[in-house]
Write a structure and sequence with these properties.
18% strand; two-stranded antiparallel ribbon; 36% helix; 11 helices; 277 residues; alpha/beta
């Protein structure tokens, strides 16, 4: 892991060496850079892949304030400048897709293509209910890493879907806690401000401003219920229609987490085809 200084923050960053164009992966709300391992390992060394922990997450700096899409866009610029990347393929999952949408609209000269995983549209209030278990873990001390991973493994949306990618992802998520157990590295104050900002952000105003080829990947399965997917088919089709050059691919038998943290051949094939065209 490297510490990349992007303006006022230092971001914990992992690089998979490879060729051009460089790919930058931006993770979701309470996630970390390890969510990109399945994709990065599949695409390198054909492509250099850069993934980093967002401010307030993982091993990155956790300032007291400034958690919003505009601040994240400044961080993306800092990462690109640090690695001397003129134009990158920008991939985003969930909140990362929101960040990528605004970045592509505001900085078209720095983006070659977009890949959006199950995100990039306005957040419905009920979506926050679906991701409640991820937010609820913040600030809570668990007796041990095994206890924490066991609890995550028991969540309904991982039933029958658990794999080594998820084990690595949640193992990285925690740090030693004062009581001798473990707790999430994600700063609770960062997520509280982030959610407040998201509820006041309107992403649809940027969709039609995107001028790069875009691949939108949708996960159709729900989380707490069978039908509480984060992006409905109607929303995905409307978003794909609003972005001038966008292809929508539905990745069957995946939910909001496993569309990225799984070995999804259909998704990888769609990404490879998108990068070649």
């Amino acid at each position: 892991m490297d510490r990349v200084h992007a303006g006022e923050v230092a971001l914990a960053t992992r690089v998979w060496p490879g060729g051009e164009p460089t790919i930058v992966g931006i993770h979701g709300l309470t996630a970390n850079h390890t969510c990109w391992y399945p994709v990065a390992e599949a695409l390198a060394p054909q492509h250099r892949f850069i993934a980093y922990d967002l401010r307030g997450r993982g091993g990155s700096d956790k300032p007291e304030r400034d958690y919003n899409i505009a601040a994240h866009n400044r961080d993306v610029l800092g990462v690109l400048d640090h690695f001397e990347v003129e134009r990158a393929v920008v991939m985003g999952h969930s909140l990362g897709a929101h960040i990528a949408v605004r970045f592509a609209a505001r900085h078209p000269d720095r983006v070659a293509k977009l890949v959006l995983f199950d995100g990039g549209l306005d957040v419905r209030p009920e979506v926050l209910d679906s991701i409640g278990p991820s937010i609820a873990r913040l600030g809570v001390e668990f007796p041990s890493l095994d206890a924490f991973v066991g609890l995550m493994k028991g969540l309904p949306f991982f039933a029958g879907r658990w794999n080594d990618h998820l084990t690595r992802y949640f193992a990285y998520d925690v740090e030693p806690a004062p009581g001798g157990g473990v707790r999430s590295k994600v700063a609770k104050h960062a997520i509280e401000e982030e959610v407040w900002a998201l509820q006041r952000t309107r992403l649809w105003v940027w969709h039609h401003q995107i001028r790069v080829p875009t691949l939108l990947l949708r996960a159709p399965d729900g989380l707490l219920r069978g039908d509480d997917c984060l992006m409905t088919q109607e929303e995905a089709e409307a978003m794909a229609h609003a972005i001038p050059d966008c292809r929508l691919v539905v990745i069957s038998k995946t939910n909001h987490y496993t569309i990225l943290l799984g070995d999804n051949a259909v998704a990888l094939d769609a990404i490879r085809a998108h990068l070649k065209n």
